[in-house]
Amino acid sequence: NIISYLDLNDKNSSFYWLELARRITSLYPDKYNFTAYAIAHGTLVPFSYHTFDNRVTLVGLRSYSLDLGRATMSSAIIFRNQKITERYILEFTESYRKLGKFDDDKFSELLNQIHLTDLNVRKECMKLVDKLLN
Question: How far apart are CA 84 and CA 57, in angstroms?
Fold first, then answer.
């Protein structure tokens, strides 16, 4: 299960990620669950976390890259504690419930928020997704 944010300042990457997630969700509906939300300029970029075996949590930390002009994963903390991992799982479950299922309506809502109007960029993103999945 994945919850992702879409950076409205990076329309190309957000469109690419959204289209990739839509296709993977369609191809593997029993194995892959995805939902997302859009964030605007100036919004605090959330950290990422992953849970493993209900007892290990990896928390990704970000720092601002002057070269890239955006936040990137810079380091991580690993917690080997079942209670901490259970708390992250509960938080994830509640956030996923609040954001809702990734369906055609959710895809359209997010696509409208990204507002990528350049059809050439859209076509190029679609080609990249095709290449990645084939």
Answer: 8
- pLDDT tens digits, one per residue of 5-33: 888 888 888 999 999 999 998 899 888 88
> Which residues 6+ apart lie within 8 Å of 52 measured at CB?
58
CA distances from 24 to 19, 20, 73, 113 (A): 9, 6, 24, 21
Crossing angle of the two packed helices 11-27 and 119-133, in degrees rounded to 10 = 40
Distance CA 96, CA 93 (A): 5
pLDDT band at 83 (very low <50, low <70, confident <90, very high): very high
CA distance 18 to 2: 12
